[in-house]
Amino acid sequence: MKSISYLGPEGSYCEQATIDIYRNEKLFPIHTIPAVIESVQDGITDYGVVPIENSIEGSVTVTLDALIHDYDVNINSEILLNISHSLITNGIKNPKDILKIYSHPQALAQCRIYISKNLPQAELINASSTSAALSELQPESQYSAAIAHSRNAIKHNNLHVIEEDIQDEENNITRFAVLGKEVTKPSNNDKTSFCFDFSDIDKSGQLISVLKLFSDQNINITKIESRPSKKELGKYIFWMDIIGHSEEIKLKKIFTHINTLTSKFKIIGSYPISNKPI
Fold first, then answer.
1. Angle (nearest 5°) at CA 146 between 136 and 39
2. 10-residue block means of pLDDT along the chain (278 residues)?
3. Which of 9, 16, 165, 192 has the fewest CB atoms within 10 Å, i.e. is most exposed?
């Protein structure tokens, strides 16, 4: 039996994604993304599941930065999860009476238009997760609401679901990364994530020279994003996802070339592509 850590607490969307794949394994909720990743790096758990990207709000930058700067683990697979948010209170039924809304920052952002239109008077308060936000709705916590999945309201007494599916876009999907210490073998339908920077040898045209290596070999780049280097203002590290596995001969040659062009180069994982949300 494998041990799996995930971004908790229990009831989080990350737990839902984890249970769907690992329901027969030992599951351990952990309250921060870096702590989940660290549990894998230190061998406390076999795998860890963390959110990495949302179809509305984009990348989960805490995850990207941790994988770039702080930890040496590999993305082994990905899980796509359909996300549905609900407005939940401890008894209030009129949205106009709500003065505070608790939720994870990503969930609040994914419901930005709904909140602006229906709850302009409410103060938005960040919680560590959507499920943790429900814990703020104590009986004495009047005029407060949380944004979370409606199934979590069942686990709490006296909670009322005012409205379901309040996210701004119907197609709201979060991608979760399954992290491990090993490198996965090719599956013939893979994606590779890696990062690089030019901090020590920065000059014009370098990014184009890297991109051209992939276009010349007809390799599709599915994602490119810059993140602060954390060393100097205006210096960035690039995160890229490309189609293919790092063990393929043509990718090995490209990565060897990139290593000579960059100051830092790090493969973060090659893993099977998931196209079907759960």
1. 70
2. 89 87 91 94 96 90 95 96 90 84 90 94 89 77 84 74 89 93 94 90 80 94 93 88 96 94 93 86
3. 165
